[in-house]
Amino acid sequence: MSVRRLAEENVQPAAFAFSKENAVWAKATIKKYPKGREQSAVIPLLMRAQEQDGWVTKAAIESIADMLTMPYIRVLEVATFYTQFQLKPVGTRAHVQVCGTTPCMLRGSEDLINLCKKRIHPNPLTPNEAGTLSWEEVECQGTCVNAPMVMIFKDTYEDLTVPQLEYIIDRFDAGKGADVKPGPQIDRIFSAPVGGPTTLLAPEKKPAAPRAKKVSDAAAVSVPPSNAARVKTDAPETDPALKTPATAKSQSAANDKVSGETRAEGGADAKPVAAAAKPSLEDKNRPAGIAKPDAPDDLKLISGVGPKIEGTLHELGIFTFAQVAGWKKAEREWVDGYLNFKGRIERDDWGKQAKALAKGGEAEYIKVFGKKPR
Ligand code: FES
């Protein structure tokens, strides 16, 4: 870890004071700790000072030390130890923290860092000319599954590419960072597999087992009983005689499922069946959309809908529980195919969930399902 020092004297403000609102908050926070243990509030107070001024100044450290009756050096130790505290002024609109730890590095974080050098400033922790943006490389932020990622203020932006990060930086620089949804920037819900779950799905209809070949009595006799026990499977057999190895192979191929894709007969050499094509937006079964109402329903209350899917539904003009509840089977199938959900809409029974939510919100949902939504 690099040496962390306070900013030069010439950039340090002469004094620090919490705003009226923050002062009330600080007082209440200190009160949460038992008498004699008020110093435990040092980290929240330093964090609030940083949120207020953008960075932790020497004056803030001294002021907080006074509030907690701590020696200045003790608060300085805390502020210089934890890297989430910025000890120098950073970008006023965004300080981009790029994770450079191994998983993110293997997934392209160096390109993201190069973009920051080009778009913001060649050096980390140095604001751009306008003072609006700065960047630094940080250690793992705990979203390695969705690498590479950056953190801006308290939000993470994941599954990034260079153009996506450039777009995010541009939005923040324009003061419109709130337009960008935090989290994965691709089609995935939180850390679920891209395109939807591939495991722990409801059992699918098994393909019909290939008809067992009737073996001749002579062949049956030729299989020793010990081998016979080994090749026997639970699959239905038309002949009580034992399967030949060839029969067992075709049975195994028929039952073989890998990551939701069914292998064609032929086993390991066969190619996976191609994924179904995304249904057309012009399809007659596409549910009718509406203009965005002033207060759209929170579709995320439907189990299986996360922020990303909700965004896609909005793009389709779906904003209310009543719309989802009113979908006919063909329409549900269209949406399911469009989201590449592989039957999840039926399995999660979006129709029933949406009907309950449309009728009486969370209370009705609890009445119907015996639990809170999501
Ligand atoms: S390695 Fe980047 S978030 Fe963990």
What is the H/E string?
HHHHEHHEEEHEHHHEEHHHHH
Our Rg estimate from Cα atoms comes to 30 Å
**CATH architecture term of the domain at 94-184:** 3-Layer(aba) Sandwich
Q: What average pLDDT do the residues reach?
A: 83
Give the uncertain stretches in residue-range form. 215-273
Structural class: alpha/beta
Structure annotation, total helices: 15
Let me know the number of strands.
Answer: 7
Question: Which descriptor suits the 3D outline?
Answer: elongated
Bound molecules: FE2/S2 (inorganic) cluster
SSE layout:
Layout: H1 20-31, H2 42-53, H3 58-67, H4 72-81, E1 94-99, H5 102-106, H6 109-119, E2 133-138, E3 150-152, E4 155-158, H7 162-173, E5 183-184, H8 217-222, H9 225-231, H10 245-255, E6 257-258, E7 261-262, H11 307-315, H12 321-325, H13 329-338, H14 344-347, H15 350-369
Parallel strand pairs: 1-2, 4-5
Antiparallel strand pairs: 1-3, 3-4, 6-7
Helix pairs in contact: 2-3, 3-4
Can you walk me through this structure?
The protein is an alpha/beta fold and 374 residues long. Among the domains are: 73 residues, Arc Repressor Mutant, subunit A (Orthogonal Bundle), CATH 1.10.10.1590; 91 residues, Glutaredoxin; 71 residues. Helices cover 39% and strands 7% of the residues. The protein contains 15 helices and seven strands. The chain has a five-stranded mixed sheet, with helices on one face. Strands 6-7 form a two-stranded antiparallel sheet. Strand 3 and strand 4 form a beta hairpin. Helix 2 runs antiparallel to helix 3 and helix 3 crosses helix 4. The protein is elongated. The structure holds FE2/S2 (inorganic) cluster (FES). FE2/S2 (inorganic) cluster binds next to helix 5.
